Amino acid sequence: MKTNRDDLVPAFLPQSESSPVEWLVADGLTDYDAALAFMEERVAAIRDGTARELVWLVEHPPLYTAGTSAKADDLLAADRFPVHATGRGGEYTYHGPGQRVAYVMLDLKRRREDIRAFVTALEQWIISTLASFNVKGERREDRVGVWVTRPERPALPDGSPAEDKIAAIGIRLRKWVSFHGISINVEPELAHFDGIVPCGVRGHGVTSLVDLGLPIDMHDLDLALLASFEDVFGAVERQSAP
């Protein structure tokens, strides 16, 4: 029998006593290639036992990323922004100012060696964060990410309500240490998503907290992300940006 992601236990706590996850918020816009290099180095150190687990919150300048399943036809405007090939799972995504990207570097050997359950935990983290702003985020069995219904818009041809994606997930594991992570739209330029088919999903839109009528800023979201993270993944320790 196929397992529904709603049936998986969302908590992904360490199985034994361990140090809190480091929590770091980057100032300004972070260069994408520099972020990849940093993650590669940090993941290796976590696996070697010389660094703690880390959640790193950043914003990027406008760019597109291509995951390992990206299809050429889904890049609609190749010359619009830089396009970065990346080793994470998934298809094309957009990153840019006003979008919070959370890079999640956790040791799943200390938690649970279960990729499906890990993705469910990431979804639960996002859903709980959105709930703190009275936004009902939902998962879909046939689409990774978190979605919100838009009842104010016409229904889809099959009669189902219109939906927009508000958060994306794309991860990679190396020796059971995770990297890449999630993104949540706070107030990005939504027209920038027009240059791709986001995550290869056609027939649905993209939204943000501000687009939903919520005057949320990045600091508000970060506080909600931290509180919800601890419920799902365990204690954190905030670090000062270098």
Description:
This protein is of the alpha/beta class and 242 residues long. It has helices spanning 32-48, 115-131, 218-233; strands at 21-25, 54-58, 63-66, 83-85, 92-95, 99-105, 138-140, 143-149, 163-174, 177-185, 205-206, 236-239. Strands 1, 2, 6, 7, 8, 9, 10, 11 and 12 form a 9-stranded mixed beta sheet that branches. Strand 9 (163-174) and strand 10 (177-185) form a beta hairpin. Helix 2 (115-131) crosses helix 3 (218-233). The mean pLDDT is 91.
Quick recap of the structure?
By secondary structure, this protein is α/β, with parallel strands linked by helices.
Count helical runs.
3
Mean pLDDT: 91
Contiguous uncertain segments of 5+ residues: none
Structural class label: alpha/beta
Order of helices and strands: EHEEEEEHEEEEEHE
Output the radius of gyration.
17 Å
Tell me the total number of β-strands: 12
* Helix-residue proportion: 10-25%
Tell me about the largest β-sheet. Answer: 9 strands, mixed
Strand content: 25-35%
Overall 3D geometry?
Answer: globular
In whole angstroms, how far apart are the ends?
A: 49 Å
